[in-house]
Amino acid sequence: MKTTIRKSIPRDLDFLEKLETTCFPKFQQSNRRAIRYSISSPFQKVVIAESGDGKEKKPVGSAILYLYAKTLRIFSIAVLPEVQGQGVGKQLLEYAVNLAKSGKIGRITLEVRKTDSKVVKFYENAGFKFTEELPDYYTIGENGIRMALQIDENTEKQSLSNIIIVKNPKNWNLQIEGVKVVSSRGYITESEFQSLKNVRIFNLSNSYQYQKMGYYVSLLASARDHRVIPNVTTLRDFSSLSLIRSLSGYIDDDIQNAFRLVKENKVSVFVYFSKSVNPKFRQLAQKLYHLFEAPLLQIDFVKSEKWMIQKVTPLSLKKVNPDDLEKVQEFARDYFSKKRFSRPRFKNYKYDLAILVNPKEKNPPSCPEALQNFKKAAEKEGFYTEFITKEDFSQLSEYDALFIRETTSVNDHTYQFSRTAYAEGLVVLDDPWSILRCSNKIFQNERLKQNKIKTPATLVLSKFSYRKSQNLNLKFPLVLKQPDSAFSIGVEKVDNIEQLDEALKKLFLGSDLIIAQEFMPSEYDWRIGVLDQKPLFACKYYMAKNHWQIYNWKSESKYKGGESDSVAIEDVPENVIKTAIKAAALIGDGLYGVDLKIINGEVYVIEINDNPNIDADVEDLILKDQLYSRIVRSLLNRIEINRNIAQFVTG
Fold it and tell me: Which of 90, 201, 413, 431 would bridge 228 by S-S if both were Cys, CB 3.0 to 4.6 A apart?
């Protein structure tokens, strides 16, 4: 069949949607919105395979490709059932390979259903090799497998080398290509390990206690800029039960399901290189490893009303049950044979930056053009930059910095990414404590009040003590906010006690506490961007048409927000800038958007946002490219400070 390949255009949308429904099972299909995003995405490429000549050409297949600086990921290749077996899929695959070669990309990766033997064989015949299995990747019971094709063999030689640290290497009978077993004393004292670069350390020393040998291995590894598991921060985190239980909330459903048939009130799960010797806990073990990254772990659970983590203990090799030692080495062999850490690294980049995005997010904090501007600015500063998604969690520790550009929340993966990246020693914007503090309006209100910063008059209403028609020391109208509201969602305006009672009935379903604030009408809100406790940008966000908020989510209009004006910092009233900087400093030294109003000459802080919007032709209208450069330089400066000072202390 004569086939040509071209770039997709918006009018291909109907065909691409048809391909999804005819070529993939329902749980694997992308919806129309996701396909539309792929066509316009700055880091995806969608191509169409057509058959025939001239006006007789008709589309018969497509490929969706993710383009990173060093990796090309094949998201999907699909061909109409009636023309399968005629070489169309092979041509699309060859196109992807040639695209990678022309862009000097050394590696192609993809995921495929494990049970789809025909497709697996297709990629194997093209030279792709199995790298790892992905349990329940598509849906429960539908495992995926990740495959990779190494185009540039030299990139394999540039990958991270792996060193396992044990007290006595003679007791570690492990022969794996690319893995070296070294004694704790040797790693600390021998000069060859002091100058190594691009090394990953797996610390299995006999004791992790403060000032013991294992503690110093992790400490010195951080000082040498070696990636180390576990690092000193992680070791400290294991001692905080409140932090452990907070993090474990992300996998609470998995915990309850794993132990639903366990009759005892206590159980321990041993996780060795992400696996459990007990097959019943296989899936839970992987989730626990990603949450509490250490080579060997013991997690103790107890049950009262439900199962909860009682303790997390990183294990040295000495403390592993002797009956499990054979399994430990088997799991380690499997772990390293998957070449998990073979991400290519080119010499012209000083550091690696991951930008976390969500391609499916309706209202992301940065538009596609702004994301590309961040990438260009980062590459000018010496960063190799990749856009990553929540599926890339296991690769997080391979970067030097994480920049989050999707809407953050304490109750989703963005906080988990931030917390894990920080524990791994990465520089992070937004850092986890900023997400925690900015996500909760109750914290902000208390913090601002204590520091004598003006806010609208506020009351915190409790689900358990509020009574209908109770006398409030606030005048109507009132603005009600869920503590974690964002983008004007979870925010309601009420004009009387009846509306208040009705609104609270609904809002209390999602939170035990609700904030009630006096309504301060204004034509616009000030938004001051603050970075490193200095003003970065200033905008006036006007209220949406015929609405009291900046966003009107009930509007039938395509654009639900009000207009905006960008203002030079020097043209902003001085008291607005000073108040914004003071308010942001109460949260931290990261990147924030402070929302303020001027009422009767007085400045009021409405809220402080981590992860503020930075869109092309809005927030960057004054500084242009300099805005992106200043943020990237902040990341660079933080890395340099960490390399020279902080990692000696924080790990």
Answer: 201
pLDDT mean over 607-616: 93
Residues 641 and 514 placed together within one structural domain of the fold = no
For 429-465, the pLDDT digits (tens) are 989 989 988 887 778 888 898 899 999 888 878 877 7
Residue 506 CB burial class (10 angstroms; 0-12, 13-18, ≥19): exposed
The CA distances from residue 258 to 267, 285, 292, 382, 646, in Å, are 11, 10, 18, 45, 39
Residue 237: left if φ>0, alpha if ψ -120 to 50, beta else—which one?
alpha
Long-range contacts of 261-266 (CB under 8 A, 24+ apart): 262/303, 265/302, 265/303, 266/300, 266/301, 266/302, 266/303, 266/310
106 in the same domain as 130: yes
CATH of the domain at 581: 3.30.470.20
Please check whether residue 649 is in contact with residue 233, taking contact to mean a CB–CB distance below 8 angstroms.
no
Let me know if residue 102 belongs to a domain: yes
Same domain, 507 and 558: no
Asked if 559 and 497 sit in the same domain, the reply is: no
Q: Residue 407: its pLDDT value, please?
A: 92
The answer to whether the pTM exceeds 0.90 is no
pLDDT band for position 175 (cuts 50, 70, 90): low
pLDDT exceeds 90 at position 132: no
Q: What's the rounded Cα separation, in Å, for the pair 243 and 322?
A: 31
> Which range has highest mean pLDDT (292-296, 308-312, 582-586)?
582-586
Q: Which domain holds residue 268?
A: 238-314
